[in-house]
């Protein structure tokens, strides 16, 4: 987002992103959906409900990622860092659209808690940006590491029973790992283990809520 925009214009842009992120059917993927050419699997009702819960978690994770990147881009000090945040956010929009599409195919829905998590994540992202670019980038890396852990666990749970969801999560995992690596290579600091463990516990609580709500 250009720095020469007035503060009110920046707020309008961020509000527009929030509305697009939170309104089902608004975000359109620029990259081809990895599951597009894969035939849908025959799922039991139990598997359908379970995989829907997992994909709902991943969709909410992308909602949070959007908010984090938007908040960080607003307070980042360096132009290069701000641009990298915006670029990563654009790529995360593909993930958002893919997860939403898969939820629809599974006759399910996104989480009712998304607006709450968006607001909290935007605030955290803005605070991380104010702390300094190296901490902001470190937070990106630590967050992407948490997302990668969830994706890896979900892939283990899904196995080959839902090939469409599997294809989506595999591509998302590659992208998230690249985002984490880029953040560190751009000057981000490695967060200490106690901080990451705290983030993991918070993440576990959030995913339990989103799985059902």
Binned, the helix content reads over 70%
Structural class: mainly alpha
So what's the overall shape? globular
Total helical segments: 7
Domains (count): 1
- What is the average of the pLDDT values? 81
CATH class: Mainly Alpha
Taking the alpha carbons of the first and last residues, their distance comes to: 33 Å
The unreliable regions are: none
Main sheet characteristics: none
Strand content: under 5%
Order of helices and strands: HHHHHHH
How many beta-strand elements?
0
CATH superfamily: Ferritin, core subunit, four-helix bundle
Q: What are the defining features of this structure?
A:
213 residues; mainly alpha; single chain
Secondary-structure blueprint:
Blueprint: H1 7-22, H2 45-75, H3 79-105, H4 114-131, H5 133-158, H6 163-185, H7 193-212
Helix pairs in contact: 1-2, 2-3, 2-4, 2-5, 2-7, 3-6, 4-5, 5-6
């Amino acid at each position: 987002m250009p720095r020469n925009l007035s503060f009110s214009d920046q707020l309008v842009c961020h509000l527009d992103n929030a509305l697009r992120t939170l309104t089902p059917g608004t975000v359109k993927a620029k990259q081809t959906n990895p599951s597009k050419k894969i035939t849908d699997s025959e799922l039991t009702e139990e598997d359908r409900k379970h995989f829907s819960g997992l994909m709902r978690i991943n969709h909410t994770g992308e909602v949070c990622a959007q908010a984090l990147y938007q908040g960080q881009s607003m307070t980042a000090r360096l132009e290069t860092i701000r641009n990298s945040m915006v670029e990563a956010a654009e790529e995360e929009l593909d993930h958002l659209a893919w997860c939403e599409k898969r939820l629809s195919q599974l006759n399910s829905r996104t989480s009712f808690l998304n607006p709450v998590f968006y607001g909290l994540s935007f605030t955290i992202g803005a605070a991380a940006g104010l702390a300094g670019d190296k901490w902001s980038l470190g937070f990106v890396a630590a967050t992407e590491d948490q997302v990668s852990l969830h994706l890896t666990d979900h892939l283990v749970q899904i196995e080959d029973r839902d090939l469409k969801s599997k294809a989506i999560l595999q591509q998302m995992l590659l992208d998230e790992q690249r985002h984490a690596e880029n953040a560190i290579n751009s000057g981000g600091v490695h967060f200490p283990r106690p901080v990451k463990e705290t983030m993991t516990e918070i993440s576990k609580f959030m995913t339990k809520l989103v799985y059902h709500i």
